[in-house]
Amino acid sequence: MTGSEVPVRTRLFEGLKYPLVIEPDAPQAATPAALQDYIRANVDTLEALLLEKGALLFRGFGVASAGEFSAVVDSFPIEQMTYLGGNTPRHKVQGGIYTSTEINHRYKIKLHNELSFQENYPRNVFFFCETPAAAGGETILADVRDVYRAIPPEIVRTFEEKKVKYVRVFQQKRALTELLKKLVPTYFHLTWEQLFFTKDKARVEAACRELHIDFEWRRNGDLALTNVLPAVIPHPVTGEPLWFNHVPSLHFNRRTLGRPVYRTRKFLYRDERKLPTQVFYGDGSPIGMAELHPIYDALDRNTVKFPWERGDVLALDNRIIAHGRNPFTAPRKVLVSLAQPRSGARTAAAPA
Question: Which among 114, 188, 251, 322 is placed 20 to 30 Å from 235, CA to CA?
Answer without folding.
Answer: 251
